[in-house]
Amino acid sequence: MFKEINNNTQDNLLKQEIYKLFVSQCENIKTLLWSTLQPLSLFPGAQTCFSQLYRLCVEVDFVNSDALDEMARICKGLNELTIRYCSYDHPGLISLINAQKNLKRVWLHFTIKKGCKELGKSLARKGDTIDVLTLYSVSVITPSLLTSFINLKYLSIYNKTNKENVEDEVKELQQYLAISEFSKLQSLNIYELSCFKELATLVEKAKENILQIFIYNSDYNTNKDAENTEMLIKAISNNCPNIKQLSTYIEPKDFIHIKSLLLNCRSLRKIRLDNLNSFVNENDNIGDELLDILTKFSPKSLNDVTISEVWKYSIDAFEQFFESCRERTTINFGIIHDDKYFITEDHKSIVRKYMNKGVIEWTNCVLTS
């Protein structure tokens, strides 16, 4: 790890000598975190030090462009590349990407609203080798370039920017997600984005390759996506027999489709079902339907279950569910907490009982004994 300690002029010569010493004494480094203004690749011994580099994380705002150009000449076998704090189309970084022969895993943390077009194009030219792509903003690269990554196995997209300022970018991203062909996709992770319909389309194209889907949004308190949650559950149920982990949002109207999912996806190990809508009927044990489905139709492989507390559950349904879990080894049981707290002391007593019996291994439902 080569990381800038500070930037005081009086320390610069000392730091330079220290870095030169590292570079001259190290051979065939495999992993490098490059976060210093020191031009590491220009120091004596850089060829021997960095020619076998396999994994590189570069904080671009700290790194000299000439040094990146030289690293492109030295290092052509990168397998993993993480780019952080990029704020423009960095020529040296583009050269580095272009030089790689077998780039497979890429993580992009950019600091601008509009993506770096030329850098995105250079990555798209590696679309036949890249199988892991993580975008920490919806505007990291031009959304149309997504269609170039034809061999993706793992796709993660985060919307970490101000959502109110990226509405156009989100719409464009949704458009290209809908037409992208990721036939080898195994893992799909979406954070702070509303695109159930587009994800359903992706799932239908990837079919039995899908092993894991994780969807998270901190403010799903709207009806606008309700009609599409059913589409995603149906797509998973009909196309993903090998899925092992699922985390998504549903409404009570979708409970019936969870039955089909459990019957068709018999390798499912972990499921997390959160509430999409903020509306709650406090006088109705609506969650009993979901617990009944989980009780009757869960595969024996399912040993990690998390459900929303917004769906009110009766004590009897709670007990019947845990009683059905005796046939499995042990289970993890989680409750997604909300403003409406329907998990009472009676519910907690049931959980404690089955923890004592060894049916439940872990839970966040019981904080005190």
Automatic annotation (TrEMBL):
Protein name (Swiss-Prot/TrEMBL): F-box domain-containing protein
Gene source species: Glomus cerebriforme
